[in-house]
Amino acid sequence: MGAEREYRYRVVDVFTERVLEGNALAVFPDASGLDGALMQRIARELNLPETTFVLSPTRADCTARVRIFTPLKEMRFAGHPTLGTAFVLRDEGYVPVKTGDFVLEEEVGTVPVRVDASEQPMFWLRTPPIETGRHYDAALCATVLGLDRSDLLDCAPQRLSAGNPTIFVPLRNRDAVDRAWIDLAGMKTLRGADAEPVCVFVFTPMADGAYSRMFAPEYGIAEDPATGSSTGPLAVYMMRHGLVASIDGTRFVSEQGVKMGRRSSLYVQVHGDNGAIGIEVGGHVTPVASATMRLTL
Description:
Layout: E1 4-14, E2 23-28, H1 36-46, E3 50-55, E4 64-69, E5 74-75, H2 79-91, E6 101-106, E7 109-115, E8 123-126, E9 131-135, H3 138-144, E10 158-161, E11 166-170, H4 174-179, H5 184-191, E12 199-206, E13 209-216, E14 221-224, H6 228-240, E15 251-256, E16 264-271, E17 278-283, E18 285-296
Parallel strand pairs: 2-3, 4-6, 11-12, 13-15
Antiparallel strand pairs: 1-2, 1-18, 3-4, 4-5, 6-7, 7-8, 8-17, 9-10, 10-11, 12-13, 13-14, 15-16, 16-17
């Protein structure tokens, strides 16, 4: 019989100022003693979009090392887990409150985090380098999403990635976004011979940014309420196609999760024309619960 150990965790809602909205996240502030296989089993048990585990960093320039898991797989990078974990680390004193900038170590590499100095601070991450992938047939995208070809804008759907490959499909209006849906079979049909799992991100341009939804059944997430890792690439896609301004200082918001009753507000700050200097994604984090998991190891 192994020894019993307790692991404390926090649940927070990310990209919202309201409890039970935004994207839920479980954070284990001290995951020492847990290996990757057990982390994956814990994430499957909690069954939230993602669960993070905080470890000592291997780099001197990082505050902590963070491993991120969906119910099915480990992620190299994800936005709402990065910001939610940053909130917990700051809230519990691992990062001094006066510190406005720090760096987290993730599988994708180092991820800089910035905290606004305000009564209800916003947390910002610097999006990792964005890779541009292939285009997809618009008619096929419409079919697998249960839409008509006329529901899509003329911009070709395209795959971009800041650590998580995502197919961006621009739609004509909010109604089309709300009608869209893709299951596991449709996802496999869409990506074709590509071996790597992908997410599908549908959106329509709005006056202040975009109205969005994201599907990731291959990651164990039928629909994600807020996808920070895809929002930086969303900004790049929209700027390239003239769907949003592309000048230094541009700031807009992606409204996501509305259809599933988990409204999320993901803010984007563009630095340099067309994001040449970098793109930040930010939002608020709201604490929900604290709990303890007892494991016999």
